[in-house]
Amino acid sequence: MIVGGWRPAKVAEVRDATPTARVLEIDVPDWPGNDAGQHVDIRLTAEDGYQAVRSYSLGSYGSSTRVELAVDEVPDGEVSPYLVRDVQPGDELEVKGPLGGYFVWRPGGEGPVQLIAGGSGIVPLMAIARSAKNAGAAASVRLLYSVRRAQDAIYREELVADAADGGVALTWAYTRAAPEGWDGDVGRLDDDAIRAAAWPPGDEPIVYVCGPTGFVEHVADALVRLGHPAARIKTERFGGA
Asked: Which SUPFAM superfamilies match (predicted)?
């Protein structure tokens, strides 16, 4: 029963994604479906009645009643440590959504698409990449994924396999340490790195940028400097300013 927009849900599967992140598959029996890029609110209720609500992007899209989240732990958080370390299949929670109509992608002649993710900002962009691949539009989509180290990349194995199998073109950026054999620079994304990986402004791509607030602002400013119109840049951020 939906009460106040909240839908009862049950955790179906959990799997480790990185040392600090986990992918959760959640069954929502009356889920209406969602577009790639949307998010949900998750509500947890303690035995004493205390409730905590947090928003999480969806790594899944479409009409399935099983939705996917990938949650990175915030060490002093109320909700993410439980979802990453404690929740188990069969546990119950509540979901509100799908939410958001701006940071979404739908198949249908939109032209080049550039995805730029920082850390767990990959989650909604993963939904877009999956949707594009399944729609036969992967050739029009490029992904630039910035992480501290290779082991911090959520969905790393799937992204690498898909890129090798005709999926979305993938470029990595490492800000702290690179894997063995890496011959690129290590450090914060700069204009040159973005220019080299992204569709050029002349191709008029729609650009989706998701990650921590500082990352998103830095990348959006760089894109404008490189000639991308601000109106073609969609951003979604998390964390404090």
From this structure: Ferredoxin reductase-like, C-terminal NADP-linked domain, Riboflavin synthase domain-like
State the amino acid at position 90 in one-letter form: G
The domains found in the chain, sorted by start residue, are 6-99 (2.40.30.10), 113-238 (3.40.50.80)
pLDDT at residue 75, rounded to an integer: 87
Spatial separation of the C-alpha atoms in residues 189 and 187, rounded to whole Å: 6
Neighbours of 53 (CB within 10 A): 14
Query: Which strands sit side by side in the sheet containing 39-45, from one edge to the other?
Result: 51-57, 39-45, 92-99, 6-18, 21-27, 66-72
pLDDT value at 241 more than 50: no
Q: Where are the beta strands (DSSP E) in the chain?
A: 6-18, 21-27, 39-45, 51-57, 66-72, 92-99, 113-118, 141-147, 169-174, 206-212, 233-238
The pTM is what? 0.96
Amino acid (1-letter code) at residue 45: T
